[in-house]
Amino acid sequence: MSLKLKIRLSVFLLLVLLLGLGGYAFLTIRFLENGAHGIEQTDFNTARFAVLAFLAAGTAVGVTMMVRLPRIVVRPLHRLTADMERVAGPGPATRVAVGKRDEVGTVAAAVNLVLSQAQDERRATLAELFTERNRMESLVRSLDEGLLLLDEHGTIVLANPVACDLLGLPQPRLLGQPAAAVAATNELMRDLLVPLAEANLAGDAVPDPVFTFPHKGDAPHYQLSISPIELAAGPGGKTVAGGHIFCLRNVSDFKKLDEVKSTFLATISHELKTPLASIKLSLMLLQNARTTDAERQTLATGIGEETQRLLNMVGQLIEVSRLDAGAGIKLNVQPMHLADVIRYATQTVHPQLHDKQIQLDLQLPEALPEVHGDVEKTTWVLINLLSNAIRYSPAEAPLIIRAMQWGEMVRVSVEDRGPGIPAEFHKRIFQRFAGVPGQGGHGSSGLGLSISREFIGAQGGQLWVESQPAAGSRFLFTLPVAV
After folding, report:
1. 142 exposed, middle or buried (CB, 10 Å; 0-12, 13-18, 19+)?
2. pTM exceeds 0.70, yes or no
């Protein structure tokens, strides 16, 4: 039975009693007004009893309604309120109990429907949050930069694997720990907190510090940048500080580039100074009246050689600048005989071979096919390879040049008996300004092999090296066979 029907029945019963009492009293009064005489005591007692009965019944019904009706109405509401508080609390309850099919039961059913929809939306929201959290965790883990997140109290709340590796501490020993407490036992962490104490944050005029981590091997240099975290606006519309982000970025490549640049400048300075000094001395001797004609001719020849050396070096620099500017390589591709190119290149380096008494061994087959290529660029590459081989070869050592057909290509190799190149430097030597540690000081600018690979690659071939320490080196390049 619904609450509305209960209230209506209670009020209806009370009205019936009141109307019955009023009607009986009205009839009695009319009877007396019409001149009733000789009312017997029995009738009087009956009337009085009826009135009292009506009054007692009405009073009882009224008191009952006054006591029971609020309970009937309020009790389900209290039960509904308690159920809703239980659902809203931290307990496992997720639904409101539906007691009877009345108005409160209808409200409870509607509340359950709303709660069910809210649960579905909550699950969807939680799923999205978990997905975003997993995505962010994957992103943070996959970063090649060290990342530390400190909250406003200086507690470490995030540390990715790179940061843990750099600090030499596992993640459980970092997360949830005050940074100051970690710094008390970890010198690296103590050094990282110094820029924060000095307010050296990212974006200011002070350069970000660079730290060295020796256990990282060839990439020990990391630059630290500290960025403040600003949370949502607080009282008065001001942002609230939420901590700091420590980012350690690997700058080892830039450090290596600086070292390579310094080495290159020193090498170029030496390479330019030596021939210029020789040319200056030769000019001074030429101006000397006591110099004979034969000596003058020798000096002029030396000046020519030193000048050609300077021109070759400047040509390399110009070629590199053109490639860096995106100008590309201009080729004059045509069928050519590699044997003729090899003979011309060996004649060009003949003075160098003679100075070190290098034993040249040419192994050229008679039926070597023509190749498609640029004569000038290929000759330049071969002369560069021969010059390098002579430079690093000991005196009176053999130098072997081979050419052979290699499928649809012709392969040329230059083999020396020099100190050799470790495997880890086979790729590096073809980079600009690069060299092999411990083999410097031979007058190499570090550009020849880089330019040579560019030239050969532009002609559709390849240039590589096969070498081992103390076993000499063999440089090889290929060019396509002319069809």
Report:
1. exposed
2. no
